[in-house]
Amino acid sequence: MQVSDSSSRILAGLLEARTGQQLTMSRRWRIETALAALLRERGIPTLDELITILVMGREPSLATQVVEALLNNETYFFRDRAPFDLLARAALPKLAQARQQTRRITIWSAGCSTGQEAYSLAMMFAEDPVKWSGWTIDILGTDVSDCVIRRAREGAYSQFEVQRGLGITQMIRWFEETENGWRAIEPLRRMVRFQPQNLLEPPPHPGKFDIVLCRNVLLYLNSERRGLIFDRIAGAMPDDGYLMLGAGETVIGQTRRFEADPDARGLYRPVGTAEDRRSGGERRTATG
Ligand SMILES: C[S@@+](CC[C@H](N)C(=O)[O-])C[C@H]1O[C@@H](n2cnc3c(N)ncnc32)[C@H](O)[C@@H]1O
Description:
globular, binds S-adenosylmethionine
């Protein structure tokens, strides 16, 4: 199946309009592989035929399926491991101290894909039951793709997926074997909730998230959109919150609303007052 320039431009345009993700020329080779299964499933013989159906707007659900197929959902448990250790070592003790009164910590995994990031966080807390006894740990995972959110809610993984990032002890402790693989046990599933959310839209629950993970999500957005999303995430956090990005990602030069944490390299802290941060993101949208 050959992807013509005009077809790949239309598909890349659709993906960017819906999610902000840019399919640069060097990444357009993905189109063919990413859409092969969808074409088969829908009985559409060629990409040109697919484009015709999309352009005529006959099947709105098809456009959503195309976008979902083009998104990169790569993820695994405790991805890059070290940032999770850093969170446990540098951020959680300070937050535990600061939240003694409410005994509540709220975490947002933004762009959570099939949920491994959120379940990794849940395991971190669940593996220290004495320290967190009596605390409410509220973990929200969101993603623009409904189909990965459905999978995340299910908490079911293949043998291959469950082994990526988990040792055998963790796997056996937190997952039960099913006919098709492994499923997170109920107490772990109860610690996390998942809902669809597009980062191009304002975040859920402004001012609420003590920790935000936005990892490997914004790499292919243009700098203007990336800056706007960082500003909005800052507006969704209290003054003493923490932002964690993917390996090789940074906020430096993208937004003035976060700064690197001098005590925890790799974590970022909101800058300015919560009020300023909340209005900042929206001012940026209003002024373009
Ligand atoms: C490469 S995965 C990263 C998953 C996880 N954060 C990790 O680092 O392992 C990127 C995820 O971001 C989601 N995503 C892309 N654009 C988005 C947007 N505009 N809003 C919300 N999620 C988005 C994709 O659907 C995908 O599941």
